[in-house]
């Protein structure tokens, strides 16, 4: 990339990495941008590497389902890593995700032990979002 | 965009050009911004390094956060992730438009540095006549200059009106940073503040100003309190009476008293106070105490660049053994504190003030370690100081006795 024309002509993408692993055999769904990546019992770690469009919004949804607490207190999904272009959202910025579950425990976590969903939503270009969540100060808008 | 003390318009507050640029009033600021600056925008879009940005490139070389990095960050662009953050910036469509229109833009400047003029009650040894009327008179008297610099542009009410009219039209106006001379005694400052209040910009823009800590003006303070956000720059070079010599003829006790008043007012009002230093060969050894003060009082610190002019006061005129000694003390202090490895560009983030202070100290350690040897300039330094001292009836060695041998050997 030597100038702005070159830059516009380059297909820049985000390097997305997600690793989750099971405790027990949790009934799991993993969604990335409305695409179902995994569905069913999670029997071992899964690692997802994707190249995402630079400017697209992002929704990561991880669901634990059908856990019966009386007979299975252990099973859970553990998010080991979620990073975008080397920015470690898990484990460093886990509080940016929303965890909702049937036990109403909403403290930030990467350990999903209850029926419910863990949702990370980025509704603007990733680099603008990162600027804001990391407290980089002003973000001027043209106008 | 910047207006200098004599009214020249520049594309950036940090840019350095060796040629004259158009004067406000002679050229309309928008003509400068839209037409003259198109060349700069085109060069940037073409990926060319700019000569005027050399000070920033030098700062980055030694790990100091540069003005370039700070300005880019305001549009969401980082140097470390340049390509991706640039394309992701909300300004990217404007860059593209500008590319198609040979550097033209339809935008208006939203971030300004306004040098109000050279009206100043100080005659700092590293300053110049264009920025200090007091120094200008002295330089003329002792023969350093033949004639006084042109009058400050803010003495012309029509030019102030022109600026205020433009600011009033700028819906996205975000930041105005004022410097002098001494900002608080320059009549133009009050006039512009009043106009901004009248135009109801109080909740929209951040006012920045730099003061030399010799003035306390309640009326101006009240005006500043009208604004939601103020960035306050406080100029000081030393916590000792070395400051009296360098920022002549200030008195350190009065300066530090005023600084504490400003810090207190800033805390009360939610402003962001920052110490603004201009480190020179005379104050390299004073940096440690300044950093300690900033660190302990949670006040940020910012120096515009590694001193470029006057050459004879650059830190690089100090011999290596002197620089090493200063560095050892700085390093010992820095090592007592854990340093965050990722560079903090937004040094105004209150939660990172101490890290930002440490990182700035590290950049000076790097500079003192690695800057080129310019000891050949030291005799010139001594000639300059001798003339100033004769004029002022003081002696640099009364303030910096540790340099007696060095200065005598260089001709003091």
Walk me through the structure.
The complex is a heterodimer of chains A (143) and B (412). Chain A is mainly β and 143 residues long. Chain A has a single domain, classed as Lipoxygenase-1. Helix content of chain A is 13%, strand content 45%. Chain A is built from 3 helices and 10 strands, in the order αβββββββαβββα. In chain A, the strands form 2 sheets. In chain A, strands 1, 4, 6, 7 and 9 form a 5-stranded antiparallel sheet that branches. In chain A, strands 3-2-5-10-8 form a 5-stranded antiparallel sheet, with no helix packed on it. In chain A, a hairpin with a 2-residue loop joins strand 6 (76-84) and strand 7. The model of chain A has no long low-confidence stretch (mean pLDDT 96). Chain B has 412 residues and is an alpha/beta fold. Chain B folds into 3 domains: 10-100, no CATH class; 110-277, Aldolase class I (TIM Barrel, Alpha-Beta Barrel), CATH 3.20.20.70; 310-412, no CATH class. Chain B is 44% helix and 9% strand. In chain B, strands 2-1-3-4-5-6-7-8 form an 8-stranded mixed sheet. The longest helix of chain B is centred in the middle third of the chain and has 18 residues, at 252-269. The mean pLDDT of chain B is 96. The interface between A and B is medium-sized, with 28 and 37 residues.
């Amino acid at each position: 990339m030597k100038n702005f024309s070159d830059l516009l002509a380059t297909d820049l993408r985000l390097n997305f990495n997600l690793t989750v692993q099971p405790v027990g055999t949790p009934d799991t769904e993993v969604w990335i941008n409305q695409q179902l990546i995994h569905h069913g019992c999670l029997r071992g770690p899964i690692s997802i590497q994707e190249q995402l469009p630079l400017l697209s919004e992002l929704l990561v949804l991880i669901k634990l389902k059908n856990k019966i607490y009386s007979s299975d207190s252990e099973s859970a999904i553990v998010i080991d890593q979620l990073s975008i272009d080397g920015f470690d959202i898990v484990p460093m910025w886990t509080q940016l995700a929303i965890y909702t579950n049937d036990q109403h425990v909403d403290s930030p976590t990467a350990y999903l032990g209850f029926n419910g969903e863990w949702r990370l939503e980025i509704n603007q270009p990733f680099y603008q979002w990162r600027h804001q969540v990391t407290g980089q100060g002003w973000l001027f808008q043209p106008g | 965009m910047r207006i200098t003390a004599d009214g020249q318009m520049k594309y950036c507050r940090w840019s350095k050009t060796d040629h004259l640029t158009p004067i406000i009033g002679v050229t309309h600021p928008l003509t400068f911004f839209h037409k003259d600056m198109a060349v700069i925008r085109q060069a940037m879009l073409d990926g060319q390094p700019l000569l005027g940005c050399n000070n920033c490139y030098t700062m980055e070389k030694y790990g100091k956060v540069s003005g370039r990095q700070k300005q880019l960050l305001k549009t969401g662009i980082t140097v470390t992730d340049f390509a991706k953050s640039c394309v992701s910036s909300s300004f990217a469509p404007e860059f593209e438009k500008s590319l198609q229109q040979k550097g033209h833009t339809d935008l208006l400047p939203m971030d300004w540095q306004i040098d109000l003029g050279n009206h100043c009650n100080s005659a700092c040894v590293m300053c110049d006549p264009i920025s200090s009327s007091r120094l200008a008179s002295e330089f003329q008297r002792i023969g350093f200059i033949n004639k006084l610099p042109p009058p400050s542009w803010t003495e012309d009410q029509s030019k102030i009106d022109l600026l205020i009219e433009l600011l009033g039209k700028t819906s996205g106006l975000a930041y105005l940073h004022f410097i002098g001379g001494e900002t608080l005694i320059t009549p133009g400052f009050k006039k512009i503040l009043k106009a901004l209040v009248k135009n109801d910009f109080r909740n929209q823009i951040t006012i920045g100003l730099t003061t030399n800590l010799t003035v306390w003006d309640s009326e101006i303070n009240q005006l500043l309190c009208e604004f939601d956000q103020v960035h306050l720059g406080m100029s000081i070079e030393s916590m000792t009476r070395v400051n009296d010599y360098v920022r002549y003829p200030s008195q350190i006790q009065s300066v530090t008293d005023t600084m504490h008043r400003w810090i207190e007012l800033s805390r009360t009002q939610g402003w962001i106070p920052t110490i603004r230093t201009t480190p020179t060969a005379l104050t390299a050894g004073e940096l440690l105490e300044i950093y300690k003060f900033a660190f302990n009082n949670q006040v940020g610190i910012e120096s515009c660049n590694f001193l470029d002019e006057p050459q004879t006061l650059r830190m690089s005129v100090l011999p290596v053994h002197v620089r090493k000694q200063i560095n050892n003390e700085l390093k010992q202090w820095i090592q007592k504190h854990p340093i965050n490895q990722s560079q903090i560009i937004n040094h105004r983030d209150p939660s990172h003030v101490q890290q930002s202070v440490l990182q700035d100290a590290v950049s000076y350690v790097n500079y003192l370690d690695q800057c080129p040897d310019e000891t050949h300039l030291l005799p010139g330094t001594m000639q300059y100081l001798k003339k100033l001292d004769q004029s002022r009836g003081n002696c640099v060695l009364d303030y910096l006795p540790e340099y007696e041998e060095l200065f005598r050997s260089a001709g003091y």
